[in-house]
Amino acid sequence: MQNRTDAASTKTALSWQVLEEVKTYVSKLHDTDVHQRMYYYDRRHRLEPLVEILNRGFSPEDVQQGEYGNGIYFSASPAAAISMAHHVLVADVYIGRTQTDAVKSASRTSPPIGFDSIQIPGRRSTEFVIFSHLQAIPVCLLKYTERESSTANTVVSK
Fold first, then answer.
1. pLDDT by residue for the chain (158 residues), tens digit each?
2. CA 37, CA 104: separation in Å to the nearest integer?
3. Which domain of life is it from (predicted)?
4. In angstroms, how far is the first alpha carbon of the chain from the final one?
5. Closest by alpha carbon to 128, among 52, 62, 36?
6. Domain boundaries of the chain, sorted by first residue
7. Are the C-beta atoms of residues 138 and 12 closer than 8 Å to each other?
8. What is the secondary structure of 83-95 as a DSSP string?
9. Residue 152: exposed, middle, or buried by beta-carbon count in 10 A (0-12, 13-18, 19+)?
């Protein structure tokens, strides 16, 4: 028997005020058209912060200290995010003009001048760091569970 992954999702219902705040901030990025769907997980493996983000949007409290600075870290790969946690927040992330940066700098608090975010290559997958909570909109929360199954390589999405 092999493990099977089941997924369930919960969608966001943000207020129009939050969406307007994000829209205003994004309009000031160096490249306003560059955004993509990415994946966020709580590095302490807790569900509660993800539910809060889903309900209120990202906030300054969601900025985390990481190897590449104080920011909000996203994975471009759902598989990489799932491998780190069983609860993953899907978000539309406005990365704008991105600098690829392999230099660790835990004291960084903003992207380099002329850029809106940084891209971190060479880890489990490509990761991006944004430095403002207003560069991302939560879309839904995915909850993954593994269980024994007689069917190999089956993924069930709800």
1. 444 445 555 677 788 899 999 999 999 999 988 888 998 887 777 788 899 999 999 999 999 999 999 999 999 888 888 777 778 899 999 999 999 987 899 999 999 999 999 999 865 688 999 999 999 999 998 887 766 554 444 443 33
2. 24
3. Eukaryota
4. 23
5. 36
6. 2-146
7. yes
8. HH-SEEEEEEE--
9. exposed
What CATH code would you report for 2-146? 3.90.228.10
- Identify how many contiguous H helices and E strands the chain contains and give both numbers: 3, 10
The gap from C-alpha 117 to its chain's centroid, in whole angstroms, comes to: 13
Length reported for the chain: 158
Is the distance from CB of 89 to CB of 53 less than 8 angstroms? yes
